[in-house]
Design brief:
GO terms for molecular function: ATP binding; ATP hydrolysis activity. The chain has 12 helices and 9 strands. It is α/β, with parallel strands linked by helices. It folds into 2 domains: 13-73 and 99-180, P-loop containing nucleotide triphosphate hydrolases (Rossmann fold, 3-Layer(aba) Sandwich); 186-282, no CATH class. It binds adenosine-5'-diphosphate and magnesium ion. Adenosine-5'-diphosphate (ADP) binds at residues 9-10, 33, 35-41, 161, 192, 195, 227-228, 231.
């Protein structure tokens, strides 16, 4: 079982190494990186390449670790017990009818090995990773309501992503294999764009990439545009048939690119960029 990249996803050598290291070690792969650098997509692509179903758990600030294991639906049970029909009376007898299985339960009890994505773990509160330590380590947990031990039939391949909004606890880090997806250099970015827009003209791509990296390297930006923003922007440029000249100024000075709203997502950054362009033009 080895991951060797895929048609839709450009994986650098070190990223492939990291995926395979996590598979060999049988440890979760913790992937960090700026938003939009392909962390979520990595899990989807690896799962597909290795022919495993992917179970996804998207974490929010309110998500609790227990929800990934199971939840007991007491409200439904109470309603059934008050309904007084033959059906509901039958259901009430077995508490298992009110256990809602979480993604870990599903992953552990699946008949074939599955991939499990715990996406954006840094969104949850600080206790969340620690609360899952034991389950991910031992690949089992206990359901008190039904008094059964849920033990993984096959060890799932676990991906955990983080946008780095919060530090993760040391005990948690110790159990993962870690990889940081660096922001793609120009060559890698060209390959990524090529996967999405194979017919894009070379000149337009070169000009757009220059503008993109100029914007990205602007000191003091609050939110740097990332891969997915570049892709959005290119899509718009093509849809609107923006001519090459609109991206290139003859004297190589910076100008405000068309549809810049696809790249810069807050007014401070737009203002900063406009100021720079203005200063540049005055210095002509
Ligand atoms: N290496 C890559 N190869 C192909 N497409 C990529 C790559 N990295 C990012 N993308 C594009 O960027 C989009 C955002 O990626 P995503 O996985 O959602 O980022 P993240 O989870 O890191 O925020 C994807 O839908 C994909 O279109
Ligand atoms: Mg993501």
């Amino acid at each position: 079982m080895k991951f060797q990249g895929s048609e839709n996803y450009v994986a650098t050598q070190d990223l492939m190494l990291a995926v395979n290291a996590a598979i060999t070690l049988k440890r979760p792969l913790l992937v960090k990186g700026e938003p939009g650098t392909g962390k979520t997509m990595l899990a989807e692509e690896v799962a597909q390449a290795l022919d495993m179903p992917l179970l996804q758990w998207h974490i929010k600030s309110t998500t609790k670790a227990q929800q990934g294991l199971y939840e007991y639906d007491a409200v439904n049970r109470l309603r059934d017990s008050q309904l007084n029909t033959a059906d509901s009376a039958e259901r009430v007898k077995d508490i298992r009818n009110y256990i809602v299985q979480g993604v870990l339960w599903q992953a552990f009890t699946a008949d074939q090995p599955v991939a499990l994505l715990i996406d954006e773990i840094d969104k949850a509160d600080i206790e969340f990773p620690n609360d899952l330590l034991r389950e991910l380590d031992r690949m089992e947990f206990y359901c008190y309501e039904t008094r059964e031990l849920i033990k993984a039939k096959h060890r799932p391949l676990v991906f955990i992503t983080s946008n780095n909004e919060k530090e993760l606890p040391d005990a948690f880090l110790r159990r993962c294999f870690f990889h940081y997806i660096k922001f793609p250099d120009a060559d890698t970015m060209k390959k990524i764009v090529d996967v999405h827009f194979p017919t894009l003209k070379d000149e337009l791509l070169t000009a757009a990439m220059k503008t993109f990296y100029d914007v990205r390297n602007l000191p003091g930006l609050k939110k740097k545009p990332s891969t997915s923003e570049l892709l959005d922007w290119l899509k718009l440029l093509m849809a609107e048939d923006i001519p090459l000249e609109a991206l290139q100024s003859a004297d190589n000075k910076v100008s405000i690119p068309p549809l810049v709203g696809a790249l810069l997502k807050n007014e401070q950054d737009t203002t900063l960029f406009e100021k720079l362009v203005f200063m540049n033009q005055r210095n002509r």
